[in-house]
From TrEMBL:
Family the entry assigns: Belongs to the DNA mismatch repair MutL/HexB family.
Any one GO CC term of the record: MutLalpha complex
InterPro entries (UniProt xref): HATPase_C_sf, MutL/Mlh/Pms-like
Coiled coil feature spans: none
GO terms of biological process kind: mismatch repair
Gene3D superfamilies: Histidine kinase-like ATPase, C-terminal domain
Domain of life the protein comes from: Eukaryota
Name this protein carries in UniProt: Uncharacterized protein
Gene Ontology MF annotations: ATP hydrolysis activity; ATP-dependent DNA damage sensor activity
Length: 69
């Protein structure tokens, strides 16, 4: 896990693209749903996440700020 702090849309997209490149992706698509407000979808042909790292998926740090909706 990178532990990257995401403060804006640009930082989020940069981190997602870097993750794809780290997974050796050679084909990458980024889709913004409603300008990225509810979701950013990344589709790539990278190696993915290995099984030993599954436990960390979706883990939140106590310092994560979730704005009210």
């Amino acid at each position: 896990m990178s532990g990257e702090v995401v403060i804006d849309l640009q930082t989020a997209v940069k981190e997602l693209v870097e993750n794809s490149l780290d997974a050796d992706a050679t084909n990458l698509q980024v889709h913004f749903k409603q300008y990225g407000l509810p979701a950013i979808e990344v589709i790539d042909n990278g190696g993915g996440i290995s099984e030993e790292n599954y436990d960390g998926l979706g883990a939140f740090s106590p310092s994560v700020y979730m704005p009210s909706q």
